[in-house]
Predict the structure.
Amino acid sequence: MNKLHSAISAALSETVTISSRILAAVAPLLAVAALVIAASGVTSCSKDTTPTGTAMIYNGSKDITLSATQVTGVSIAFSTDYAWTAEVSADAVSWLSLSRTCGDPGGKRNGFTITIIPSENKESTARTGVVSILYGEAKSMNLNVKQTGVSALAESSQFDIPDDMIFSTTLGANTTNVAQGFDYDPDEDVIYIMQKYGAYRNHIGWQKRETKSATTAATNKMTLSCFSHGNNIAIHKASDGKKYVWAPNYGTRQDDGSYDSPQIVSRFLLEAGKTILNTDTKENYFFNIKPCWPAFDFDNDLMVICNYKYFWVYRLSALMALPDEDITLPYEITYGGVVGTINTKRDEYTGFPTVKAKDCSKVKPIATIQFDYSTRGLHWQSYCIDNGWIYAILQADKNTAPDIIFDTYVEAYKIDGTKNLYKVRQEYMQNRDRIVQFKWNTADYFYCEPEGIKVTDGVMLTMYTLRGADDPYLIRRPVIFRLASPVKE
């Protein structure tokens, strides 16, 4: 009997083991099947079409625009007391699906939500479709769905650096400090380079554009004392023939003596050989935004402010027409004093300065665009605006994305909000021997940083600060590359 009991127990144990193995093998298939069913929108719904009250309430837009790379879907909410079904037009079933396709009567109180899910559009042309929600007696609500096409640039990575891509190797006011921003005057073929200089100053240096291995620093220079980090400057040639500098101002001192987090944008004359203090500026613009990095499209009367999370777009003429007011800055700043062994020759100030400025926070922007790169291992470096598009140049973050640390990304945003396009990944560091025709070695790999971007007349210029093997710790070469137009309507 004991032997029989043991045999039965062993058989049962083996059966349980086999069953467990079968369940383990089948479970993933069941999970996949469940996902397929959910994605196809298959649910059990009543066929009763008898109305009990409200026909259809929907407050959203019936025109839905999706970007070419969008695959996350868009949710729409509505309420009705009818039973309903939803379907995708025949011309869009290959790239559009719905999270659910029907609902029972009585949804007036809690409502319903459908997610419209696209696949990535890898073609250059846009595509359209219609999502119809059918209810009652032959009634329907139609949603027009458009997905933009991907541009030619967005389909490619830049693996080669031909000679004609090198737009400028022009140096700034000195050869030992990192370039943080730039501008270009095509009429005079002059490059303007903004550099951090020492512990409390920036230099704007300018000279004719050079395309070979430039070694001569700019003799034209202007010194900005205690301003800000130095990126996103703009040189504007006004109708009076004078040149003006637009620059972020009233930053606060960092641990290394540089300045960041500006609260003011200032405009002042570009004057070779002059030094201007942050407190010297007479034309100031306050947005109640920290930090406030500016960009301009002078031809189209546009000014943009960026704080790493949003772009705010304004009419420049409306801001310039504002009266001057005494404005006390809302965030405490520190400038001047002694930084390490460097005496800035300015008394140290810590506090909330009062600045005579135009209060732009009273003006409603004509467009607001939100963005966030942190989840993708990227961080913002600089941006510009041209012909209704904002272009941001980004760098991979070595802490969160070490596999793409030497890559650069450019993204474009249309200011009317209809497009937010992922643009291009530029793998310059994989081709560093072609960049400026210097000798390179592995000790230089960590320093090829994107620092600026300008788009004009169908050309995109991107600036990098490089260190070459011939002078790895002294020469910081700002090299500007030329690419094709990033956006083609």
Notes: Helices lie at 2-40, 316-320. The chain has a mean pLDDT of 78. The longest strand covers residues 127-135.
